[in-house]
Design brief:
Blueprint (H helix, E strand, L loop, with lengths): L1 H18 L15 H16 L5 E8 L2 E12 L4 E2 L6 E2 L4 H14 L9 H4 L8 E2 L12 E2 L7 H6 L13 H5 L4 H7 L2 H9 L16 H13 L3 H10 L51 E2 L1 H12 L3 E2 L2 E2 L3 H7 L11 H4 L7 E3 L4 E3 L14 E2 L7 E5 L4 E7 L4 H16 L4
Antiparallel strand pairs: 1-2, 1-14, 2-3, 4-7, 5-6, 8-9, 10-11, 11-12, 12-13, 13-14
Amino acid sequence: MRAIFLIFLFCMAGASAFAVEPLPRGTPESAGMSSERLARVAAAIQSDIDAGRMAGAVIAIARNGRLVYHEAFGWQDKAANVRMQKDSMFAVASMTKPLTAVGAMILQEENLLSLNEPVGKYLPVLDKWAVIDGVAGEAKAPFRTVPPVRKPTIQDLMRHTAGLSYGNRGQGDLFKAWPASGIATAEEVTGAEFLERIGSLPLFYQPGTTWDYSLSFEVLGLAMEAVAKQPLEEVLGARLFRPLGMKDTTFVLPPEKFARLARPLVNPATGKPPATFDATRGVKFQCGGGCLVTTAGDYVRFQQMLLDQGRAGKQRVVSRKSLEFMTANQLNDKVDVSRLDAYANLEGYGFGLGVAVRTAPGIAGVMGSPGEFHWHGATGSLAWVDPKEKLAVVFLAVTPGPGLRFQNRRVINALVYQALE
């Protein structure tokens, strides 16, 4: 009887251990990767932790549908002496955008949204947008404006060609008038107040002429709420989070999960942590451009669905053709891409809907395959999908500031690709 009980406990423990894995497990060698070479990933991350450059990190790597590497390093909260766990939760900033983009594609499949319709059709307060007369960075208030050659569309929002920007991406009165950050804005004002504010301001560029990273996904999220008549949490929850088993992905972090939130290191110069999004405080509207909290396991589930052309097991989440369109380069030679090229390691990339899209093996400062797509977050996290290699990678850390953030994008990229056999 005791033996049967012990066998039962062993089976339950095994089932529990399997349940926490986001994807079926496989050895690196079974998926065409080298365990020995993957050890270099751990060494690089640990080196940064030991040097005090970041508190900790979690990385998940899937290849050929198998989770081949999933490890936690360092501290979730060093000040509180809490070690990092594989299911530690991270505010992932702009890594929110690809999920919002897929959600928008699903709403189009449900005939609730059309990518080629003007933004103002869904958000009437934005139907009268004018465009700054002259160069945005030189604009002085009161602003002189001209009519738009055409109205910005939902597709423009998703590929950052709607004429918007962030207020912190330039000088001059127009940049100062626009909100500097989607997250900070969502902490301060409601969605209606945000739309009223930007609706009263001119656009930076004629729609469709210029790629500029922008508040467009905050606008997109509010358009999605308007057509679905639901908060963005529920729009994406019903269509992505719950179907994919992303139980720890949310815009509204419940108090019982506060203790799992990864925290940045204290700045030794100020004695305070850097200014980052604190998900425990909540937001006044759920911003589709940067307000999600998630885990590496949840995010790699999402990535695997993208690799599986919109399927999660036997369930169809989004159509294959929607994903093909979303991950295709949406920028032609009529679009000024100088601001995209100026991003570290993105020269030679195009841009799809919510994701940068690699168009050639070379040119960019990092390795990859044509068709690879990705987007990263200002808090230091990064993720990419390489369909040719059947590879998905998510790296979560809290390392705000461009220095280490850009370094990690290069280092993690090189060390993952060098482990391919």
